[in-house]
Design a protein that fits this description.
The protein is mostly helical and about 190 residues long. It has two domains: about 35 residues, no CATH class; about 160 residues. The protein is about 75% helix and about 0% strand. Helix 1 packs antiparallel against helix 2 and helix 4 packs across helix 5. The longest helix has about 35 residues.
Length: about 190
């Protein structure tokens, strides 16, 4: 169990002893949402995301890891997931399907989906072009949009470190969305049986 979860469990027990309903609700939510599985996925992400300075590899792997979470998020909105086998084969359609669930009045959520779209554009640019003319503009555009999700600065101002930091931040957001939606789907499945 992650040390954060131990801390939250301790705080929950204190809140229960004190009868503090707000803290009970808060720490119960944290424990239900940020499960051991959540932290295992985060550990997997940190293990698989390269830190060797290769920007192309960083974008390709980071994109793939984020795409897995978006795919889980989207698929867990549907009760008949087997029917989705041939749907959303391309990532752009998948991202737009996920964005369709977003509150159109929530600029924070829409900005997150915009980050996913921009990262997908960078990934496609790197995967399908030999000439990197225009890449820096795409990176700068992505970093500008993703900046709101970054809690702490990168180790340096290099494009690689800034991209690593941004991909880390939006992966955690995608993992959160996926975790919450998977929880809802599991509850739905339990009600059906």
């Amino acid at each position: 169990m992650n040390s954060s979860r131990y801390h939250w469990q301790e705080e929950l027990e204190k809140a229960k002893a004190q009868g503090d309903e707000a803290k009970i609700k808060h720490f119960s939510y944290l424990l239900l949402t940020y499960t051991d599985e959540y932290f295992e996925n985060l550990d997997k992400f940190y293990t698989l995301l390269p830190s060797d300075g290769d920007l192309t590899l960083l974008v390709l792997k980071g994109h793939l890891l984020i795409e897995q979470q978006i795919r889980s998020y989207v698929h867990n909105h549907f009760p008949n997931q087997k029917a989705l086998k041939e749907v959303f084969k391309d990532t752009h359609s998948l991202i737009n399907a996920g964005k369709a669930y977003a509150d159109p009045d929530c600029t924070e959520t829409l900005a997150l989906w915009d980050c996913f779209i921009k990262l997908n554009g960078i990934r496609n640019f790197l995967a399908h072009r030999l000439d990197h003319t225009g890449l820096q503009h795409k990176i700068d555009d992505f970093l500008k949009v993703s900046d709101r999700f970054i809690s702490f600065g990168p180790d340096s101002d290099s494009a690689y470190d800034r991209m690593h930091n941004a991909i880390n931040a939006i992966y955690q957001k995608a993992l959160y969305l996926s975790t919450v939606q998977e929880k809802k789907y599991r509850e739905f499945e339990e009600q059906r049986t």
